[in-house]
Amino acid sequence: MKTNTLKSSARLKKTAEFFTPMWLVNEMIDKIEEGSPEFFIDPDLVALDPTCGNGQFVLGVLNRKVKNGISKEQSIKTTFGADLMADNIADLMARILFWKEFDIDIFDDKGNPVPDLKHDGHDDDHSIYWLHENGIKDYKREYSCNGITVSIRQNPKKWWLFEHKYKSAKVSKLHYSGGGWNRNFVVADALKYNYRFDGNCPNLEEPKKA
Fold it and tell me: What pTM, to 2 d.p., does this model score?
């Protein structure tokens, strides 16, 4: 694992990725709250970021829901996200797990890794198409911060669905964290975007064997 690994400028140019700074996220959330104050108060209202990246808006929404008295568990349950890049979804799931279990955000206000974070590097192509075309069903990323290691792994039966587990000084064994929210955050196929966020996408066929 590497320390504080940023995405390359070549990749950001190729994918047109932009990670919204948290000050702007909060400003936009303030506008939503002014116009629809019930949005962050009603525990059953759902938020969706269809191009979530590594979760700047998602974390902004989660923090605002919690600030208004909604539990972390319920906040996550009613928040959804999708992105083309598998490493972004892995980053987001690790980010949520650190936030949920340990009150740590492993990315800073600009969406960059915090200095203490060690994690796998970002290659230029980690898209759903790259996973599919290369038959990759063992995609895995690890994140380590403050003595806690989180592992995000691709579900071997579903290209776009990921699972997570963590270990730390507080947890003596590798443990799958429950709650079912793994299915809330998926790697998306932008060409045929009709997800139900249940881990089932009919748009990708298994790669043909030679």
Answer: 0.81
